Amino acid sequence: MESVIDQAFAAALYTEGDAGLDAGASLLAAAPQADAELVRRGEEFVRRAWQRGWLPADVVRLVRRDLDEHAAGLAARLIASEVRRYDELPPRWRSQLDELPAAPPANRPDRFSYASAFLALCRTLLALPAIEPVGPPPGAAREALTRPPAAGEPRMLTRIRALLAKAEATGYPEEAEALTTKAQELMARHSIDEALLAARTHGDRTPGACRIGVDAPYETAKAILLDAVASANRCQAVWNSDLGFATVIGFEADLEAVELLHTSLLVQGTAAMTRAEAGQRAGGRKRTKTFRQSFLMAYAQRLGSRLADGTARATAEAESDADGGAHGGTGLLPVLAARDLAVTEAAEQMFPRTTTTRVRGATDLDGWTHGTQAADRARMGGEARGIGR
User: Fold this and answer.
1) Residue 176's closest CA among 185, 163, 188?
2) pLDDT of 198-255, one tens digit each?
3) Which of 268, 269, 261, 272 has the alpha carbon at shortest distance from 185?
4) Residues 298, 220: contact at Cβ < 8 Å?
5) Global pTM value
6) d(CA 80, CA 63)
7) How far is the C-alpha of 197 from the C-alpha of 329, rounded, in Å?
8) What does the DSSP 8-state code read for residue 217?
9) Partners of residue 247 on adjacent β-strands
């Protein structure tokens, strides 16, 4: 004989529309004795997500997009409960778990509404497709879950984050430029030192990957910006527009640089767009959607040009330092070329079939002009020492 849980899930998960959710929620609302089993089933769906390549942040991001913030909180509760069964977690999981949204109280505002939202979440989790894994799932062998951190890595990243946060918050352009230039120099020094150290010790020869959310609106422009930042940091980005994220492939130090710099430049670009839009509105203009789209497209493309222009200079300076003995006389260009090749091969193995999409051009001249100017003012320190290829 089917249990109440089985009947509720059969109604909600395998019947389209709200009628199935309502029928399943009615059964659960009348059966408080089934609450514990309901949570256990939810944890099982979360566990299937890990097996299909999803990470906690990925799950929460998609649930928030396809359902709502309340459902994202329910997903966070299931995730936090499910991961308690593991003694070890993969790299990057701890920070993602720390950033999970707050979970709403159980059975609120009433049992029926809670059960309906829970079943809608389970329906979404069940439909998650298999995606390319960017690391081992929880429960894998211990040696696969852990990697020794680079010397001084946490301290370095903490300092870089602090510098970028100050740059984003200050109202003084000169101070922001000095702060972000210093942050970029630290990222560049860390990346190059890691590459040379790996070459001398024959370590860290395998690129990794991470996923970065590319959220609506104006996701095409945001994806272009991310691609520019990834390329400048010797990484490759592959955008999945349907699922709302990009996978970035590269060596660990470079992946961290991409995450930090992309976030900072996106914050700066959004703030600049808001200021420019306010000026347009003050002049009586109301076409804000086309203005924003054109602004961010210009911002992303201009930043890509700036990063590309600074790449050759940064590499030449670093190679000169290496030849002069600053890095023990190890030639930098062959080391970087080998890492570039490793990243390309890893990306091709992970994504053997990718497609290119024609990007719709900007249609707002004022938005394009303001976006280009904002990119020229963006504080990334690339002119001093970029991480480019």
Assistant:
1) 163
2) 888 776 678 999 999 998 888 988 998 899 889 888 899 999 999 999 999 999 888 9
3) 261
4) no
5) 0.82
6) 15
7) 12
8) S
9) 211, 238
